[in-house]
């Protein structure tokens, strides 16, 4: 029995879809295994009790060592980076009311809804060649209370220049604008080390999902030097999710203790896949940016909505419509899957495009 065809209008259609000879370039979930050591002796009763709303002290202390001048009280452990972003924006609303938030477009598809659910108003600066256009940024930043940046980026795979990040630090500090820096891919950079953006109003968002392949544990965190943000997040969290799952926090702490070679080894695998998928799509005639981090490519193609439907229903290939990221005329592919599957998926895409070369221009 075949798949019943319905028009696909959201990434929600594909979440959790697997098997049946499907090749999925959709999910941003690492397929590489997590560290083995995190699974030892987890049948401890303490790990199934309520915990601190802020998060387990040992995990917060370990995190503080990764940020110069930080201490455990500067962190809130959250249910993934998504809850962290939500809590931050709702805290800003509690303190400042309905203010404007600058988003970089294309953006991760959940950003505008999270901002709007918090009672804030999103406004946009368009990326130039997949990176922040600092001239347009400077114009827009004067009229907002906060800006959300994401480097390495989902969906572009681009990494912001260090000079741009330093300029953002300077501009926002002068204006008193919050910078929410979503750094969930900070350990997956191929070209340089991550630059940690700093400042009194900088709020760093991160998680253990991408670095350690722990997506399902839903453990992320907020790091902020502004105690009002931390207090606001805790005051909200106590009435919503309460503590983040204690077992997940213990496994995240153990993951932090693995040798650095674990992360660098996995990054080398991501880079190999990046090179293959970028080369394969380029050889087909796609116009796309070469990713410097994360595990996404965002090639141009006409009729992107139709392409998403056709590839899934006729060729069992999942890709995401760029329109979902406010990048119409593109499709997003995640290369978080084994190289043989990437090769097979590209082969199916090539067969689909046979005779449709004009769609790539």
UniProtKB/TrEMBL annotation:
InterPro entries per record: Aminotransferase_I/II_large (IPR004839), AspAT/PAT-like (IPR050596), NHTrfase_class1_PyrdxlP-BS (IPR004838), PyrdxlP-dep_Trfase (IPR015424), PyrdxlP-dep_Trfase_major (IPR015421)
Named cofactor requirement(s): pyridoxal 5'-phosphate
Signal peptide residue numbers: none
GO biological process per UniProt: amino acid metabolic process
Broad EC category: transferase
Record's keyword terms, sorted: Aminotransferase, Pyridoxal phosphate, Transferase
EC number: 2.6.1.-
Residues covered by the Aminotransferase class I/classII large domain: 21-349
Gene3D superfamilies, per database record: Type I PLP-dependent aspartate aminotransferase-like (Major domain)
Residues forming coiled coils: none
Molecular functions (GO terms): pyridoxal phosphate binding; transaminase activity
Family the UniProt entry places it in: Belongs to the class-I pyridoxal-phosphate-dependent aminotransferase family.
Name used for this protein in its record: Aminotransferase
Organism the protein comes from: Candidatus Liptonbacteria bacterium RIFCSPLOWO2_01_FULL_45_15
